[in-house]
Specification:
The chain is α/β, with parallel strands linked by helices. The protein is 44% helix and 11% strand. Strands 3-9-6-7-8-5-4 form a 7-stranded antiparallel β-sheet. Helix 52 (1237-1250) links the parallel strand 26 (1230-1234) and strand 27 (1262-1265). The radius of gyration is 36 Å and the shape is globular. It starts with 8 loop residues before the first helix and ends in a 47-residue tail after the last helix.
Length: 1436
């Protein structure tokens, strides 16, 4: 393991000056901990020594230092980066280890968790020791000798464990803590028995737990008693803390974490099943609501957390079966409880509670009414009533809980009041924000989230209570994230505008912003009365006027590009009302400081010019010469907000003085939120076969085709297999048998039939346990496949009639994925870089298209680029273009001859109609049929039935005659003249009878296709409106419909309302799509007979590469909004097919990331093709890590927050590019990547300065960030890692995997060696990289392409080798090469004199680069505080 290295003191000082940590912190530097690490566990000795932990070192050198400062995160991260856990604490742990040893492990695990680093894998090698460690940690949560800060940290460790139930060793420790045994702590045996009798499986589980306890020894019994009492004891301790006098800050923090823990338990069915009953029995929520800590006005976060806990505690789901109750079911259960209360009241308290007992349910299910009805009871009678209702009335003395009248009343009220369901709460959520929503305290807390305190946000877990629960969480989180981004945009606008109070007392603006314009107050044009059953206006229309005179052309063009349905924000800014101090509850935002009073969102309805003309095509209008200088924009206001405004004391709209727009990339939040809200409010089910797997319960393999009853026995795989040998190689472990009508091997196409299994003979009672030593063949019987073939039909005599065939020789893993994807069910395909997952997805779609012609397939991808790549491959296969449709604006970038958008397809149909009608006229002329048959598709249909079909029938009579010779059949063929332009002879003279008939059938198929196409065109002749034609195309004609996940989310309501139905979903880049984006394409149709007709879901992705982009750390890390359905299914253990052979990169380059995947091999062509065997011209190595020292005494800089740059690496990257261009490398084969947007901007600036205007160099294919380049590749990659003080976000190994896997032939990485080589997570890649010298090794005297064979050079010294010592060295080297090249070019062209073409390296003003970030790129920065990209990619 590489030792930790020192960083220059300047970097350490900068880190210390930052006052804490804003991202991944490696804690290097000459610190006490680094010195300690070198002494005890990062020793330089090569022999591995047994780790012996010294307790005095732990206590004095580490624990005391941390405790002195209340365990600061910065220090813990310094310890974590020094591999304290991996190399010292865990290897040295034993049962005899001290408590400080346990606590330090807990603290560092928590630090790793906050950095999203792999943790539990470290413990997997010693499960027994981990079990002991976990037990000790559980005991410490109840240890009164420990301080509350320490116990809070231990509780965080437990919370993290319960969030990682997919890990076996963790699940084994956590599961007993929430098992049925905790019901030993219920208030009465009678209550427990009634619960056990409610479901038969509960009684069985209880008996099994009792049997296990009775059969255990004393140690086992003690362990089981601890497990069943731990949660109860923890809750009692929590209640004691809540009711203690004078709650301290650390007490509140512990209480917040404990409520978070209870919420986590309640939000997943396996942990909720028994816990919910215990929490209700202990009346945790009533006790919380009445406690002094809860009612302290400063503890608003605790109150919000309690609301979330209450939401899950009373969530309408059956705790045992997991069935979500409908609104009617939930009300029925509520009424059942009220009925029990009424019966008890009537029986035991008839005199005092007669009114309660005889009232209808609606009169007693509200707190106020019920409290009044209970008033007549005395304290003793209240206690008696609670006892009769099986409600706990006693607690251990340790809780200090006062069970008085107030408490008992609260218990009764909380038990019997009617609560809003999650659908009712979702219904009340507005999708358009106002200032209250934007500056809500819960949202403001996310601004500065650092993990030190929880947030009152639902989390996306491994499992969900129900589909409705998942949708509710997604709605809340996506709404919060959208509003968070809107607020940041508004604050940015106001910061730029600089509001001020002018002498007149009015608010003016000193600055400018291209995203905002000052306006007069809006005019309210119309308020349409409410519809029946509603209490808000059905429509509210307003109008604002904007003045465009002072805007520059490009800004004006952006304003004039506004379209209907775009969302604008109307702001009231009053600089005189700028706040200086917050009114409690968190710090002020920038907008509040600048005087923002109110915000109203509105949708664009229509846009008029200054003459009152409607502008429908903004681009055409802008290009005209008569455009005016002002615009009137008609807006639709949010009706509910408007109603509230008009009922208020102040007219909000009188004060509005600013209109703000957002870029289209970010402003699609409203239709997406509406789609999620519609789904939440509806009862749209998932396909029944997918339901349990989606929620995370049951058998993870339950949705795969091998487990489903509708598995298809026979499938035609057409061109999937290229030959018999390919077929046999592709199905290892299976028996391949030729069909009954064949005796040996034969060529494609192949039809595979699954042979029936012989009936099993029952040999008595089989053992339930599987023998570990059983042979695999005995465990799962080897599958037998029968193979048959057929002769593909002749489709016509023209070359265009020949089918387009697949040429890819699929690997066995790819074939497994294709077979699974073609069968019904769920298919998860993990595709490492370069393994051809796009080809696999294409072939799956092709096989489904041909095998199931009545089915329709929805094709989804995260980005337009990925979707277009996949769509282009589908177009190249044997798929009829009339069945293809591409929705969304990205179709414009599709590099195909035809247009596949809605309008493009309609136009294509009409163009084909004209072409086919000409063919009909030609056919009519060829057979001598008089009349205008080619006038329309309708007349062509009549012509077909009257002339063509009878002519063919007459011919077939001759052809079927046994006496007819081939010559007779040819003579009888009626369409000789029509096919005179086909390749001749149409019928070869020596053709047999069968061959002649086959050729004739092919010709008739060609003719039939003409009439079939025209029959499809007929509706387009009848329909008049373009919209109707486009919708008909979507719902009736298209069989493969492609769109981005964003488009699906935005248009879900519209598409579903058309009655659109589909059978299959294929999703590319599934691991880059947020879970709600994954879900919406599965629910874009209305159910048929209460069931979704969905038959297949194919998810292709790679969870080892980047996850979805979520910019806010709070939503990304705490709420886990970056989770994709793909990654969650993999975590749950759903069988995934791993593509295992890459064909993109040289094997040596693939080695850099091969360790991340299971058995990733190389395709044969990477070992044989010349381009993979030949060395890179001018370079000794095909890949190299190049250590870049400080340049001009500087490493990384940060001119503005999170805008990180490194001038030395930028200069070095450009110098390498210049060197390659001078050797003849094509610019299109070179890409330069950076890990930060700031570095990308700097490299672009250096390129513009040195290369852009020089034809010798030009510009590389692309300069971008690693995140933006996922899914792309190039032959040669120059990668700048940028950081010199700490590793930064590359500690997320997924990003490193993306960075290392973009290059095919050459990869040159620029970075600071001492920073990256000591990072534990990256060690496997950097051990390989650093086996080679860290100074760039060049080879002189070569031009591209090289003839040198890479394998021959190995590591020996090369003739002409030159080592670059520094940035200045390579700069000078390239400078001299450039001058030499210029001289050579001048001599070749006969030019005299020397004009300086290039200058030596010049200083670049890094500060100026802040403004050089392209406006059209949203880059993803490490901390997520830079330019933003929302969870849903923009629909472009």
């Amino acid at each position: 393991m590489p030792p930790a290295k020192r960083v220059k003191s300047s970097a350490a000082q900068r880190q210390a000056a930052s006052g804490g940590r804003t991202g991944n912190d490696d804690g290097e530097g000459e610190s006490e901990f680094a010195t300690l690490a070198r002494q005890h566990w990062l020793k330089t000795t090569k022999r591995p020594a047994k780790i012996k932990v010294k307790n005095d070192v732990l206590k004095r050198e580490i624990w005391d230092t941390l405790e002195k400062e209340d365990f600061p995160l910065k220090s813990l991260l310094a310890l974590e980066s020094l591999q304290t856990l991996e190399s010292y604490l865990w290897p040295g742990y034993s049962e005899d280890s001290s408590n400080y040893h346990v606590l330090l492990i807990v603290l560092i695990v928590n630090a790793k968790r906050r950095e999203r680093l792999e943790t539990w894998e470290i413990f997997s090698d010693r499960p027994a020791e981990f079990s002991d460690l976990f037990r000790r940690a559980l005991s410490m949560t109840l240890d009164d000798s420990l301080g509350w800060i320490v116990r809070t940290n231990v509780l965080q460790f437990i919370i993290f464990a319960f969030q990682s139930l997919d890990c076996g060793i963790v699940r084994k420790e956590c599961a007993p803590l929430v098992s049925i045994s905790i019901w030993h702590n219920l208030s009465t045996e009678q209550k427990r028995d009634s619960l056990l009798d409610s479901h038969t499986h509960l009684r069985k589980a209880w008996r099994a737990a009792a049997k296990r306890y009775d059969s255990g020894d004393d140690a086992m019994k003690a362990r089981l008693r601890f497990e069943r009492s731990w949660l109860f004891s923890s809750i009692i301790e929590f209640l004691r803390l809540l009711w203690a006098e004078g709650g301290k800050k650390e007490h509140v923090l512990y209480c917040e974490r404990f409520v978070e823990f209870l919420t986590d338990l309640q939000s997943q069915l396996p942990t909720r099943r028994y816990v919910n009953t215990l929490l209700k029995d202990l009346h945790v929520l009533p006790a919380l609501h009445l406690s002094p800590v809860y009612n302290d006005e400063g503890n608003d976060l605790l109150r919000d957390l309690c609301s979330l806990l209450a939401h899950y505690t009373y969530f309408t789901v059956d705790d045992q079966t997991g069935t979500q109750h409908t609104r009617e079911d939930a009300y029925d259960l509520h009424c059942t409880g009220l009925a029990k209360l009424q019966r008890t009241a009537l029986k035991h308290f008839k005199e005092k509670l007669t009114v309660l007992a005889l009232s209808n349910y609606g009169a007693i299910d509200k707190r106020s009414e019920l409290e009044g009805l209970l008033e007549p009871l005395t304290d003793e009678e209240l206690e008696q009533l609670c006892g009769l209702l099986d409600l706990r009335t006693t607690y251990p003395e340790a809780t200090k809980l006062s069970v008085d009248r107030r408490f008992l009343i609260e218990v009764l009220l909380s038990t019997f009041e009617r609560r809003s369901t999650f659908q009712e709460m979702a219904h009340d959520l507005s999708v358009l924000p106002d200032e209250r929503a934007l500056f809500e305290l819960g949202l403001k807390r996310t601004d500065h989230y650092d993990g030190s305190r929880p947030l009152a946000l639902p989390k996306l877990n491994l499992q969900y209570l129900s589909v409705g629960d998942f949708l509710w969480r997604s709605l809340v989180l996506y709404r919060y994230e959208a509003f968070y981004a809107i607020r940041q945009d508004i604050e940015d606008v106001l910061t730029r505008l600089k509001p001020e109070v002018r002498r007149t007392g009015e608010t003016g603006f000193q600055g400018t912003s291209k995203m905002a314009l000052q306006i007069a107050k809006p005019s309210i044009l119309e308020v349409v009365p409410a519809l029946v059953g509603s209490d808000v206006p059905s429509t509210v229309r307003a109008e604002v006027t904007i003045d465009l005179r002072r805007l520059s052309d490009h800004v004006r063009r952006e304003w004039e590009s506004l379209r209907p349905d775009d969302v604008l924000f109307l702001l009231e800014v009053d600089a005189s009302k700028a706040k200086k101090v917050a009114n409690g509850g968190g710090p002020l935002s920038e907008a509040e400081k600048l005087g923002l009073v109110s915000v109203r969102a509105a949708e664009v309805s229509q846009i008029f010019d200054d003459k009152g003309r409607v502008i429908r095509d903004a681009q055409a209008y802008f290009d005209g010469h008569t455009r005016g200088s002002s615009r009137k924009i008609q807006l639709r206001l949010d009706a509910r907000t408007y109603k509230e405004d008009t009922e208020g004391r102040r007219n909000v709209y009188d004060g509005i003085n600013l209109v703000v727009r957002r870029s289209g990339r970010e402003n699609n939040f409203k239709p997406v939120l509406e789609s999620i809200k519609d789904l939440t409010l509806s009862e749209v089910p998932l396909a029944s076969w997918l339901h349990e797997v989606f929620l995370g319960y049951g058998d993870p393999a339950g949705a795969t085709y091998k487990q489903l009853p509708n598995r298809i026995k026979t499938i035609d795989y057409r061109d999937t297999f290229l030959d018999w040998q390919h077929l046999v190689e592709s199905l290892p472990g299976k028996i391949i048998e030729p069909g009954d009508d064949a005796s040996g091997s034969f060529g494609p196409p192949y039809v595979l039939e699954t042979a029936d299994k012989p009936a099993e003979v029952d040999n008595g009672k089989a053992s339930k346990k599987r023998r570990r030593d059983a042979e695999p063949a005995l465990i799962a019987e080897i599958e037998t496949l029968k193979v048959s073939t057929y002769k593909p039909p002749n489709n016509g005599p023209y070359p265009v009639d020949a089918p387009k065939l697949n040429t890819v020789r699929f690997t066995p893993a790819q074939v497994e994925a294709i077979i699974s994807g073609t069968q019904p069910g769920l298919t998860v395909i993990v595709g490492p870089p370069g393994t051809g997952k796009t080809d696999v997805a294409t072939q799956i779609i092709n096989d489904i298209y041909h095998n199931f012609p009545e089915q329709r397939t929805l094709l989804i991808a995260h980005s337009n680029q990925a979707l277009n790549q996949l769509f282009a491959k589908i177009v190249a296969l044997d798929v009829d273009e009339r069945h293809l449709l591409r929705l969304g604006h990205g179709e414009e970038e599709l590099e195909t001859e035809g247009s596949f958008s809605k309008l493009g397809r309609v136009e294509s149909f009409l163009e084909n109609r004209d072409r086919y009608l000409q063919e009909v006229n030609r056919l009519a002329a060829s057979i001598g049929a008089p009349g205008a048959h080619g006038n329309s598709a309708e007349t062509a249909g009549y012509f077909n039935s009257v002339y063509v079909v009878p002519a063919w029938a007459k011919f077939m009579e001759v052809a079927k005659s046994e006496d007819a010779a081939p010559e007779d059949i040819v003579k009888a063929f009626p369409f000789h003249y029509f096919f005179s332009d086909a390749p001749q002879p149409l019928f070869p003279p020596e053709a047999s009878r069968e061959a002649v008939i086959e050729i004739a059938n092919g010709c008739y198929r060609h003719i039939s296709k003409i009439f079939s196409e025209l029959a499809d065109v007929l509706p387009f002749e009848i329909l008049r409106r373009d919209r109707d034609k486009a919708n008909y195309l979507l719902t009736n004609e298209a069989r493969i419909i492609a769109m981005t996940s964003t488009h699906a989310a935005m248009r879900r309501r519209e598409i579903a309302s058309l009655g659109f139905q589909y059978d299959n979903v294929v999703m590319e880049e599934a691991a880059q799509i947020t879970e709600i984006e994954n879900f919406i394409p599965l629910a874009m149709q209305k159910p048929k007979d209460g069931q979704m007709p969905l038959q297949r879901v194919v998810l292709c992705g790679d969870h080892y590469q980047n996850s979805p982009v979520i910019q806010s750390m709070a939503f990304r890390h705490y709420a886990n909004l970056e989770q994709s359905l793909f990654s969650r299914l993999v975590r749950l253990g759903v069988p995934a097919i791993n593509l295992d052979q890459q064909g993109r990169a040289r094997p040596s380059i693939a080695d850099l990331y091969r360790w991340r995947y299971q058995q990733l091999g190389d395709l044969p062509h990477t070992q044989t093709n010349k381009e993979f065997l030949t060395a890179n011209a001018g370079f000794k190595y095909d890949y190299q890590f190049i250590n870049v020292p400080d340049y001009k005494s500087r490493g990384e800089t940060e001119p503005t927050p999170h805008f990180i740059q490194n001038l030395g690496e930028a200069e070095y990257a450009v110098a390498i590019y210049q060197y390659m261009r001078l050797l003849g490398y094509p610019a299109a084969k070179i890409s330069i990547l950076a890990t930060y947007a700031g570095q990308r901007a700097l490299i672009k600036d250096v390129l513009a300065h040195r290369c852009a205007k020089n034809p010798v160099f030009g510009l590389p294919r692309i300069v971008t960030t690693v995140d933006k380049y996922q899914g792309e590749q190039n032959d040669y990659i120059v990668l700048s890692l940028t950081r010199t003080s700490r590793v930064g976000y590359l500690r997320d190994i997924r990003r490193l995997t993306v960075a290392l896997s973009r290059a095919r032939l050459g990869l040159y990485i620029l970075g600071r060696r001492e920073v990256f080589e000591s990072c534990f997570e990256l060690r496997q890649a950097f051990e390989l990289l650093l086996k080679r010298p860290d100074k760039l090794a060049l080879v002189t005297g070569e031009l591209w392409p090289s003839e040198r064979i890479l394998a021959e050079e190995a590591d020996k010294e090369m003739p002409g080798e030159a080592v670059m010592e520094s940035v200045e060295h390579i700069g000078q080297y390239v400078f001299e090469m450039t001058n030499t090249r210029i001289k050579q070019l001048r001599e070749e062209r006969g030019l005299s004199g020397e004009v300086p073409i290039v200058k030596e390296l010049e200083k670049i003003d890094e500060q100026a680069e802040v403004e050089d970030v392209d406006d059209d790129e949203d880059e993803d920065d490490e901390e997520g505080e830079g330019p933003r990209a929302e969870g849903f990619e923009a629909e472009e």
